[in-house]
Amino acid sequence: MPKKAPTQCRHYGCGRLVATPGYCAEHASEAVGWQSDRLRGSRHARGYGTAWTKLRREALARDNGLCVPCRKKGRIARAVAVDHIVSKAEGGTDELTNLQSICKPCHDAKTSTEAARGRGRR
Predict the structure, then answer these.
(1) Residue 84: pLDDT above 90?
(2) Torsion angles phi and psi, residue 17, rounded to 5
(3) Using CA of residue 99, residue 105, residue 106, residue 110, what is the dihedral sign?
(4) Which pLDDT band holds residue 63 (cuts at 50, 70, 90)?
């Protein structure tokens, strides 16, 4: 059986060829999409401890477990997360009035928009 053709390293701007799809040896550390708590801190260290669990529960109950952005658009979707309306990175707080229940597609879209703003692509 013929060997598979090499592909380029996935790191932007790196043209090295690799035998298996992914990253070259220099950029292999980028292959991990998540980091363990040892590297990024526990949920408590990141501000998502017992107080957050209580706030999350309150927000979900207040919103009847439904996605707030979807409801504003006339749709009904089950919320799977609680999101900061104004992100903490942009000065938002953990007040209940700054929290909304949100479904995964809405959360992903909002997070993507916030990340782009954070990178200066307003």
Answers:
(1) yes
(2) -95, 140
(3) positive
(4) very high
pLDDT of residue 4: 83
Taking only the tens place, the pLDDT of each residue in 94-109 is 999 999 999 999 999 9
- Cα gap 115→89, rounded to integer Å: 10
Q: Which long-range contacts (CB under 8 A, 24 or more apart) does 21-25 make?
A: none
Q: Which residue has the tokens 């229940």?
A: 101
Question: At residue 69, what is the residue type?
Answer: P
Question: Per-residue pLDDT for 47 more than 90?
Answer: no
> Residue 32: how many CA atoms within 13 Å on its side-chain side?
5
Q: Which residues contact 5 (CB under 8 A, 6 or more apart)?
A: none
Q: What stretches of the chain adopt beta strand conformation (E)?
A: 7-8, 17-18, 81-84, 99-102
Q: Which one, of 88, 81, 74, lies nearest residue 108 by Cα?
A: 81
